[in-house]
Amino acid sequence: MRTHPLYELTLAKVRELVREPEALFWIFVFPVLLALALGIAFRTQGQEAIPVAVQQAAGSDWIAEALDGSAGLRAEVLASGPAREALRSGKVALVVIPGNPWTYWFDPTRPESRLARMSVDHALQAAAGRIDVRASTTRELTERGSRYIDFLIPGLLGMNLMGTGMWGIGFYVVNARSRHLLKRLLATPMRKSHYLLSQITGRLIFLIPEVALLVLFAAWVFEVPVRGSLLGLAVVCALGAMTFSGLGLLVASRARTIEGVSGLMNFVMMPMWIMSGTFFSTARFPDWMQPAVQALPLTAINDALRSVMIDGATLLEVGGEIAIGGAWCVGSFVCALLVFRWS
Amino acid sequence: MESIALRCAALRKSYEDVVALDGLDLEVRSGECFGLLGPNGAGKTTTVEILEGLIEADHGEVEVLGQRWGRDRQRLRERLGIQLQETQLAEKLTVRETIGLFRSFYRRGVDPEEVLRMVGLEEKRDAWVRKLSGGQKQRLSLACALVSDPDVLFLDEPTTGLDPQSRRQIWSVVAGFRKRGRTVLLTTHYMEEAERLCDRVAIVDRGRVIALGTPSELIASLGAEHVIEFESGGHLDVEGMRRLAGVRAVAEENGAIRLTVTEVHRAIPALLQELNRAGADLTRLATHHATLEDVFVSLTGRHLEDDDDVSLN
After folding, report:
1. Is the CB of A187 less than 8 angstroms away from the CB of B89?
2. How far is CA B200 from the centre of its chain?
3. Distance between CA atoms of residues A309 and A216, nearest Å
């Protein structure tokens, strides 16, 4: 009785990975820990009062009192030496030097300092008797789906699809090559395409628990919503997994040593970690870089995941991203098949 | 039915500026166990891997079971069982899983449990490959080659680096396979392995076959059945020893003198008399039956295992 080689090859890959505790940590535990840490770090942003200092001089107490009394600011009086030190080390966002005129001393490249300058000026002018010409009121945005954590989770999901796909296949294949196991397989009637395909099927088996864990964790701890259909999310995740499997196979297609493939992996993934909108929006890059940024596979996958999860987009609406991801998937798999080194 | 299972003619293969094969010819008959005997770097592995269709020769012809390595490679591979010298199987699969994986590649073959019995690894069935000893790993590798129930079995240095007991276990598996009428091509640099297992042996050196025949034919080609080795402190007429009773050939190597002789009982008294006459002390004296090693030494002036003492330990 004979089982299908694709089944046996996939099973072998899954067994080997499951028996490697470190690999399980990086696939399942690490992304959750990362989401937890970043979620906590950015949770209270914007709620805390901005710390500012008032340099010790005539009138400094009146200024400090006026600032402390206004919302969003916290002031303390410091001698000029400590005030300069606090400003330089970032402990305070701005230093007010009393006198006529008041001097606002701050670093204009820090967004927090620019915000402090406006708030401080507003508070002091009001305390000094300025009257606003029009009344205004505020409405605060706190709904789910628009916080930083809602931006972050789809990005982390995409980054994890990339990391697991590339490392999981790159290490496995290069390890087998360096042990001359690929050459031994070549000496059997095994079809080469079965071996390469088993890398992708093995990858897809891990996809379900991996995605489910992160999405459920984010929904439970941070109440990150999934607004689009679960099927749409599953399709985009599967595409992402296959795209990065293909890319992993291509990166691993020639390397003979683990060291060699590690360097290559980092070289390929580094631009995507930074530019593909995992931790901050791709809109931060200048226009001339946008074509390159948008063409990266992780950018396409991240954008599609974010649209489906947060904006409730349908698959049709993320067709452009799916096309880019699909092109990378097919292109890298075909190239890998052509240049793959078996011995 | 006397037919040719493997044939290659005028094989040449170079790696950059190193010539691995320099016009090597070989014919292995169906049903025989054929040995390629030679030192490291003689071209044994290159020859076997060309026959296995894993590498291509620069020049020369190759036929395996009457076919060339052309388009339908998979069909030919169905009939071959291959053990490569350097393969390390996946460490975190069990013995049974590894055999099952290899079994799935072949259309016909033996039940994995049956192969486990053949190589005597039933007790290690569920052990990870990582936990196996060197000899057990080698038997597992043999099992992966046997699981297709092949017509031809290729073994590249199957017992290098193994202890004597593991070596004998492998020999008995190979002998059992050979008894079922199948063909074996093995490489080795152990003369004892070649003498025990092989019906015919080709001695390979520097990419060519320098002698071919059954082990006993090759030994008989020395024209003498025994070798006397001795060392002496005195000054001796080495060439003159050729005239002693029963001596066929004389060679000197690292201070030791080797006499190839037909009759030990006549040669030794003559030798002692000669040493006595020359006033030379005898510091060492040993005799043994001539082996394939002696054939190699007489053909090349070098030893088979010279550069491989480490792997014997």
Report:
1. no
2. 11
3. 12
Examine the domain organization and report whether B213 and B248 are in the same domain. Answer: no
Q: Pick A8's closest partner by Cβ from B53, B54, B100.
A: B100
| CATH code of the domain occupying A50-127 | 3.40.190.10
Q: What distances in angstroms separate CA A163 from CA A146, A240, A265, A266, B67, one per listed residue?
A: 26, 11, 9, 10, 46
Q: Which residues of A touch B100 (CB under 8 A)?
A: 3, 8
Contact criterion met (CB below 8 Å) for B156 and B187? yes
The 3-state DSSP class for residue A26 equals helix
**Would you say B9 and B25 are in contact if contact means Cβ atoms under 8 Å apart?**
yes
Any idea what the CATH number is for the domain that residue B190 is in?
Answer: 3.40.50.300
CA atoms of B258 and B287, how far apart (whole Å):
9
pLDDT of residue B57: 92
Of B182, B202, B217, the last residue of a domain is: B217
The Cα of A174 is separated from the nearest Cα of chain B by a number of Å equal to 12
pLDDT in tens, B94-145: 999 999 999 999 999 999 999 999 999 999 999 999 999 999 999 999 999 9
Q: Is there a contact between A277 and A155 (Cβ–Cβ < 8 Å)? A: yes
Q: Are the beta carbons of A306 and A155 closer than 8 angstroms?
A: yes
* Mean pLDDT calculated for residue range A137-150: 74
Number of domains in chain B: 2
Closest CA of chain A from B151, distance in Å: 14
Residue B306 lies in a domain: no
pLDDT in tens, A243-252: 999 999 999 9
* Chain B residues within 8 angstroms (CB to CB) of chain A: 52-54, 74-75, 77-78, 80, 82, 84, 86-90, 92-93, 97, 100-107, 109, 111, 128, 144, 148
Asked if B208 and B229 sit in the same domain, the reply is no
Q: Which residue range is the domain that position B122 belongs to?
A: 4-217
Contact B54 A187 (CB under 8 A): yes
Looking at B217, B243, B258, the residue that finishes a domain is B217
ipTM: 0.84
Q: Is the peptide bond before A108 cis (omega within 30 degrees of 0)?
A: no
CA B98 from chain centre, in angstroms, equals 27
Tell me whether strands B4-15 and B59-64 are parallel, antiparallel or unpaired.
antiparallel
If we measure between CA atoms, which residue out of A33, A39, A28 comes closest to residue A212? A28
